[in-house]
Design brief:
Elements lengths: L2 H26 L1 H10 L5 H21 L3 H18 L17 H16 L6 H4 L8 H22 L9
Helix pairs in contact: 1-3, 1-5, 2-3, 3-4, 4-5, 4-7, 5-7
């Protein structure tokens, strides 16, 4: 094992923990999550709440375990892109800029996920155990990771419309 393997393990596990807790937080109050999705302009908010919770937990587990890591990274990138596009881009860069928070946090998670997809999961991963680590990194990993952007754009095109500004 090399230091890069330990570094990738630390990064993957942290990203996985963030996503699992995010998904569990959504799952703890599906009705509230669905209401929030509806208020942000998503059609089918109940389905989005369920899929968001399940997807974030699955992405987090895959990322932390290093199992199909580039695909987990693509899922993380998709979630962060949707969050960026629908909420955070309107507030500017800094998370403390406005009540909806800026995009530095979601962008950082997405860039970290792209990096994991490109570098690969490292030797301390299920992908390495199953001999997949070198199959899905590099340019292939980048393409898979950026496939998350394509999935997010498709989701937004089909299910999201910017809600009308609230009148004061």
């Amino acid at each position: 094992m090399d230091t890069i393997d330990y570094g990738m393990l630390i990064l993957r596990v942290w990203l996985g923990i963030v996503m699992v807790f995010h998904g569990v937080n959504h799952a703890r109050n599906l009705a509230g999550t669905a209401s929030w999705f509806a208020s942000k302009g998503f059609a089918k908010p109940e389905a989005h709440a369920r899929l968001s919770a399940a997807g974030e937990v699955a992405v987090g587990v895959g990322m932390a375990a290093g199992l199909l890591t580039s695909f987990a990274a693509a899922g993380l990138i998709a979630v962060m892109f949707v969050a960026f596009w629908t909420i955070h881009r309107f507030a500017g860069f800094f998370v403390f800029a406005r009540p909806d928070e800026g995009f530095e946090y979601v962008a950082t998670l997405a860039v970290a996920a792209v990096s994991v997809a490109v570098v690969g999961p490292g030797g301390l991963s299920f992908d390495a155990v199953f001999g997949l680590a070198d199959d899905f990194d590099g340019w292939v990993g980048l393409a898979i990771g950026l496939g998350g952007v394509a999935a997010a754009v498709l989701q937004l095109a089909v299910f999201w419309r910017k809600p009308a500004a609230a009148s004061s």
